[in-house]
Amino acid sequence: MTPPAAIDPRGPRFAAWITSALLLLATLLGLTTAGVDHTVATFGWPANPGAAFLLRQVTEPAFVLALAIAGLFLWGILSPRTHPWAVLFRRVVRPRLAPPTELEDPRPPRFAQGVGLLVVGVGLLLHLIGVPYALPIATAAAFLAAFLNAAFGLCLGCQLYLLLQRAGLVGREGPAL
């Protein structure tokens, strides 16, 4: 099995800056609306308190933004080359930079996208069932990880991948044919 093509490590860091900004905004939105009882029009739906609660939860701005961020994390896992931040980096940013001095394995950053999806996904699910502050806590945790990557080049998800790889749980090569 051939290893995946190496990537410019500045690409994931660039994406982490944008992701950090989005996660910070989602956290702030979540903190301003968490625990606030909003009245929601049912738009002709039966007057069911459960439906009204769910409608309120899914229409909160923090939820909508966190759902979009989760979608971007999923996109980064399924098709990293077509991800909007990767395309923006390749077409706009990278041509203005010197060639990279080193390249990196794309699997750890891709795994990190999965970790981000898991963290934000858990926050989304807990928010839907009404756990107070679950969404802003989840987005704050993901923000911290994205910011560490963007500002200092410390990718927590990548480090987790490397630990799991050393344990033989991920990144194993297939059998030689």
From TrEMBL:
It comes from the Bacteria. Residues 7-166 form the DUF4395 domain. Coiled coil: none annotated. Keywords: Membrane, Transmembrane, Transmembrane helix. The chain crosses the membrane at residues 58-78, 115-135, 141-164. The keyword Transmembrane helix applies. InterPro entries: DUF4395 (IPR025508). The keyword Membrane applies. This is DUF4395 domain-containing protein. It comes from Microbacterium istanbulense. The lineage of its organism: Bacteria, Bacillati, Actinomycetota, Actinomycetes, Micrococcales.
